[in-house]
């Protein structure tokens, strides 16, 4: 990230023991960073072997080089990458990874993950830093961003390849349902970034048990950085599942409750299957098919102590078969009221734009019912029924506004130079189903402290033009995108006036071969 990171630079000068003169510490290149001097920082009596300097690195995607000199002795060192890696990401404030020539911001879309929507969404945006090669080459560098979600000894991971012409990436990590229980628990999210080549491709391994050290990590020296924690929330009523109305389809032996209301993209709903009162049915099968935007996720017994349910699905989760039977058929007795046997869990697809009608088909086959009506008897004592349900579906209009910038801590040098500083701003909308759109054209932005930091009304960038009169620990930029809004916080540093100027050579000397052209007035 191209933020402002205060770093304590420990320059070990053990070779200079006994020397009382201070070591001169500078940046190798002007503009790489700034040393912080403040009257609030008192001079510390450092160990004679160690000299400490507090400095900041404001440039995106650039690793600064420091130089320590003492007379003819010179030593250089680069700022470590891990100082630039911010953690505890959210939709509003990103975490980041800084590598030479590459600056990646990472956003967790939602930190509360409900059981019925067990997916972690992570959005990343890459920006090439100042060390990017100015000359285009045929073999452009590619990067691999990996995100890991860990709970106990289980891990789910996903990766995406970051290319020069495609800086945006959305990772979807589906978590195992076994991670949830009746109480609220947390899982940790990590991320890593490495270059892609023939020996280190961009691959993803999911649902694996964490070893002490994997061979791939050992060879590639992949370092995982903590990103944030997510909360695994047990199922609770939500806006999409409150007061679901059903149309009860009656049969001689089974009843199926079909939802009559519509569902948004990415929603999950259930279809209960019940046994009629006074029924002797002990076993049945249901052939299921889901079409036009629906998928079958699961089918579970509503009363596991009495009914056992087995489910088999194809790889697309579009069709399958459920078999239900009584565990202890000999001692089973009919019930005087309707009893729920099982529930189907159905998922609405994430990516569609227009309203449509989903279709569910249930082909029911009864097996060897006792005391069944003669008119329903068929060969082998089996008979069947068919139920077709049509479910209204509509696009997911709920979205999270994600403002993306690679500079959230700024040093105002425009006050000194008069040269305007501009920092690009991108705005994306991420739907609940994981669809990403650039929505900056629909947004307006405003700063709560324009005397410290300004923003263009079209959210094109934030900028400093030298007319600012103050800095601030927190400047809030408010983004309004239709009915959705979001805030982005900045920290702005300004020079402390009167400005103290220190020259390395305080002796004024004549410059050789520099003469005032004739005809010009002397001052």
UniProtKB/TrEMBL annotation:
Domain Transmembrane protein family 132 fourth: 400-496
Keyword Repeat carried by entry: no
Lineage top rank: taxon: Eukaryota
Record's keyword terms, sorted: Signal
Start and end residues of each Transmembrane protein TMEM132 second Ig-like domain: 105-188
A UniProt-annotated Pfam family: Ig_TMEM132_2nd
Domain called Transmembrane protein TMEM132 cohesin-like: residue spans: 254-371
Keyword presence, Membrane: no
Listed InterPro entries: Ig_TMEM132_2nd (IPR055422), Ig_TMEM132_4th (IPR031437), TMEM132 (IPR026307), TMEM132_3rd (IPR055421)
Signal sequence annotation: 1-22
PANTHER family reported in the protein's UniProt record: DETONATOR, ISOFORM E
Protein name (Swiss-Prot/TrEMBL): Transmembrane protein 132E-like
């Amino acid at each position: 990230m191209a933020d402002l990171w205060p770093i304590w630079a420990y320059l070990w000068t053990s070779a200079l023991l006994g020397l009382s003169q201070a070591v001169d510490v500078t940046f190798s290149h002007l503009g790489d960073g700034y040393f912080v001097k403040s009257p609030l920082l008192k001079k510390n009596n450092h160990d004679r072997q160690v000299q400490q300097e507090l400095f900041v690195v404001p440039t995106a995607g650039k690793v600064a080089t420091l130089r320590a000199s003492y007379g003819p002795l010179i030593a250089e060192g680069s700022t470590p990458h891990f100082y630039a890696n911010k953690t505890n990401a959210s939709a509003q404030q990103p975490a980041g990874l800084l590598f030479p020539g590459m600056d990646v911001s990472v956003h967790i879309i939602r930190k509360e993950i409900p059981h019925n929507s067990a997916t972690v969404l992570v959005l990343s945006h890459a920006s090439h830093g100042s060390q990017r090669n100015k000359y285009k080459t045929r073999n452009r560098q590619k990067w691999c961003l990996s995100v890991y979600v860990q709970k106990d000894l289980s891990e789910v991971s996903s990766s995406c390849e970051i290319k020069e012409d495609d800086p945006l990436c959305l990772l979807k990590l589906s978590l195992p349902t076994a991670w949830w229980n009746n109480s609220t628990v947390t899982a940790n999210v990590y991320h890593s970034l490495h270059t892609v080549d023939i020996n280190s491709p961009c691959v993803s391994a999911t649902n694996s048990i964490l070893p002490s050290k994997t061979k791939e990590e050992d060879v590639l020296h992949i370092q995982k950085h903590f990103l944030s924690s997510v909360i695994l929330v047990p199922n609770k009523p939500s806006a999409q599942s409150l007061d679901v109305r059903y149309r009860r389809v009656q049969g001689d032996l089974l009843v199926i409750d079909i939802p009559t209301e519509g569902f948004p993209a990415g929603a999950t709903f259930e279809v209960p299957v019940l046994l009629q009162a006074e029924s002797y049915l002990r076993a049945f099968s249901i052939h299921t098919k889901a079409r036009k935007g629906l998928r079958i996720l699961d089918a579970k017994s509503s009363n596991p102590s009495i009914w056992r349910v087995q489910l088999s699905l194809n790889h697309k989760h579009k069709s399958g078969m459920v078999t239900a039977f009584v565990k202890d058929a000999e001692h089973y007795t009919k019930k005087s009221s309707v009893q729920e046997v099982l529930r189907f869990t159905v998922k609405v697809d994430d990516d569609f734009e227009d309203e449509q009608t989903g279709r569910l088909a249930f082909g029911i086959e009864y097996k060897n019912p006792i005391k069944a009506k003669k008119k329903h008897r068929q060969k082998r004592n089996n008979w069947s029924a068919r139920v077709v349900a049509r479910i209204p579906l509509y696009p997911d209009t709920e979205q999270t506004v994600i403002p993306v910038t690679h500079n959230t801590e700024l040093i105002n040098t425009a006050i000194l130079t008069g040269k305007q500083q501009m920092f690009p701003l991108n705005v994306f909308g991420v739907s609940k189903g994981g669809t990403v759109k650039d929505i900056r054209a629909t947004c307006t932005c405003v700063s709560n402290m324009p005397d410290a930091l300004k923003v263009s009304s079209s959210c094109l960038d934030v900028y400093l033009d030298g007319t600012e009169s103050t800095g601030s620990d927190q400047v809030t930029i408010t983004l309004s995108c239709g009915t959705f809004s979001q805030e982005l916080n900045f920290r702005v540093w300004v020079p402390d006036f009167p400005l103290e100027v220190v020259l390395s050579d305080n002796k004024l000397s004549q410059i050789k071969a520099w003469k005032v052209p004739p005809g010009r007035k002397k001052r």
